[in-house]
Amino acid sequence: MKKSLSVIIAAVALSVAFGSVMSAAQERKPIILGGYSKVATDNPEVQAAAEFAVNEQGERQSAAITLSSIERAERQSAAGTNFKLCLKVEIEGETEDDTISQTVSAVVHRNLQQEFSLKSWEEADCAE
Q: Taking CA atoms, which of 8, 36, 93, 99 is between 20 and 30 Å from 55?
């Protein structure tokens, strides 16, 4: 009788423990290999990618563009690293009144030689 009771108690304890582990595992978000993952906006790599994007786009537009803030950043490993950035920028016009505040989405690639390239830059809403 004692042996049967011990077996039942052990089975119940294992069921509860296993159920808790399964429940916790189901609550976690799956990791998508090769997908983007969030990264802190104050990360030095993110800041370097954002500064590169602003400078490169400034050259392309022949305009003075200033980085106001990094609103969101994501990183993806892909033969180097892709940074998907949501940036607030100021684009200077000919006069102070012509200065435009803009929110943009930019993708910057850093290759295996640690060289940056701007893959995309477009006006976007940074709301999640």
A: 36
